Amino acid sequence: MIELNGITKVYRTGSQSLEALRGISLGIGKGEFVSVMGPSGSGKSTLMNIVGCLDTPTAGEYVLDGENVAGLTFDELAAVRNRKIGFVFQNFNLLPYATAWENVELPMLFDGKNAKKRRERVTELLNAVGLLDWRDHRPTELSGGQQQRIALARALANDPPILLADEPTGNLDSKSGEEIMAILTELWQGGRTIVMVTHNDHIAACSERIIRLFDGQVVA
Amino acid sequence: MIGIFFRNLFRDLVRQPMRTALTLSGVIWGTFSVVLLLAFGDSLSKAQIKRFHGMGQGIVLVFPSQTTLPWQGFLRGKPVRVTPEMAEDIPDKVPGIELLSPEFVGGRLIRYGRNEFRNTVRGVNPQFELMRNTIAAKGRFIDPEDMAERKRVCFIGDVLATDLFGTEEPVGRSIFIDTVPFTVVGVMRAKLQSSNYNGQRDERCVFMPWTTYASLYGTKFVSNIIFRPRDLGRSKAVMEAIKVHLSKIIGFSPADPDALGVWDTLEFEKQFTTFFLAFTIFLGVIGSFTLLVGGIGVASIMRVVVDERTREIGVKLAVGARRRTILVQFFSESFVIMLLGGLVGFGFSTAVLQATKAFPKGGFTDFIGVPVLNPLVIVSTILILLAIGVVAGMIPARTAASTDPIEALRK
User: Fold this and answer.
1) What are the Cα distances from residue B363, in Å, to B48, B192, B368?
2) Do B161 and B208 fall within a single domain?
3) Phi then psi for B117, rounded to 5 degrees?
4) Does B357 reach chain A within 8 Å, measured CB to CB?
């Protein structure tokens, strides 16, 4: 599903350059649940940005679902993110003035799905995360756990094969965190590929495989 | 989809009602200024041209003077004298003249009952009426029969008529001009006249057949000739031909620049019109600057909005929005503010223009006219509004669209 070949990312600020990723090669199969771990500055975020098609590598090859995405333009990558990848963030990143319903609907608007399809899918997803009754509430009126469930529903809106979760439980109390992990596990069992960044060994234990990064290289 | 687009647009606009209102007010005021200044400039130029036409429309005045070049044995300084017969003969000799009249001018004592004034008397022919817009409101102008029989009849200006007769009916009554009785055959329709030559304005003048004038006062030479070319664009060429023709009869150099003084009102009107067009454009530019300030207000507020909503932009980009989608979103937001402000500004200015119609006719409206919203003003304002709106909308929208999603999400 995800194949990285010699991925290098160099940040340049003025005369200084920082090598965030040094020739990373790894493969993640379809339906795998992988955790990415490593200390701050080890390149986790950069790796996730590249895997999530938010950033492009300085060098190397990235084949996503059989398509080489390393050379795509920003708008082409937007389409890839829209259909193939669902994002879950540590701080939820919901639109603050939009209702739960509108937040979940957002990715489908960019995909140009018609009103009927959108309505069916949003109803289905809100039902699945148990928040259909909260559909007209704004994020500020929801608890952290509820917000993250809305974010999960949004990530699944266009039914992407891959879910990228960046510290999905980082801002949650342990009970809500467990709920989120239960949903992620369920989604994985349903056949979705999940890549998750975490600091928490306990959370990482839910996954099948742990990739450890150190100084921009895979160490395990 | 469109519904959601407009719902979100509306929500973005009302989220900060105070800020939106303040931004709007800049655009409203700017549009208001553009519309009012353009309408004002337009009406002013029209009023001025109308007043200018008060003296006459499409006419050239020729004033016989004296030579400034020696010619065939004569030294310079020889007077150029034109008789009325010579003048009336010109259309037969020079092609391209529609109307022509010789004109005698003199100051005379005019009396009716106990009212006595010293006013200008003009001896002219019937063609004078159309050239100089001395249209009869009552009675008629001088006619060919008056000319042929040297009748002692006269046509008087509207102000003189009131001065002499008060509320009495002037047509048919006798007045004395230097002790000679004349019958009034007509009174001029009131007109606005900004320019004049030789004596008082038409409203205070007496007009009589030049044949009567010449025989009564023993004057042989006209004070000026007035003509209208058939093709208004060829006034210069016709004037040149008249000069050549007269130079042969009277004996002066056709190259003499000052033997005949010429006032070509057609040339003058061209300059006049150009001046007022420039003036109107100038006013429009001033108005546009005001609107530009409004546009800068919109652009800078939208920059702030973009800054505040960086995270929202980041989220949208992450879940698959294209740069163009973001561009359209922010552009339309600025643009709607511009259009809304423009609309309200138009509304206000229309109301003010309606109110100016209530001013009484006469007085200052004679000078500046009554400003109205004509198509020229509307189209110019819309174009200015669109141009500024597009620029004011594109600047923040481009900033928004170039947001780096990674940076935006980290905030």
Assistant:
1) 14, 11, 10
2) yes
3) -140, 150
4) no
Examine the domain organization and report whether B194 and B303 are in the same domain: no
Q: Which amino acid is at A194?
A: I
Domain boundaries, chain A: 28-55+73-218
Residue with token string 């989608």: B325
Is residue B59 classed as helix, strand or coil in its secondary structure? coil
- Average pLDDT of chain B to the nearest whole number: 89
Of A81, A89, A94, Cβ closest to residue B320: A81
Q: Is B7 on the interface with A (CB under 8 A)?
A: no
B300-358 residue pLDDT tens: 999 998 998 999 999 999 999 999 999 999 999 888 999 999 999 999 999 988 888 77
| Residue-number span of the structural domain to which B108 is assigned | 60-266
List chain A residues with CB under 8 Å of B324: 75
My answer on whether B40 and B142 are in the same domain is: no
Answer for the pair B10, B17: CB distance below 8 angstroms, yes or no. no
Total count of domains within chain B:
2
Instruction: Tell if the pTM clears 0.95, that is, is over it.
Output: no
Superfamily holding A28-55+73-218? P-loop containing nucleotide triphosphate hydrolases (3.40.50.300)
Q: What is the pLDDT of residue B365?
A: 67
Residue pLDDT, tens place only, B75-97:
888 889 999 999 999 999 999 99
Chain B hits for A88, Cβ within 8 Å: none
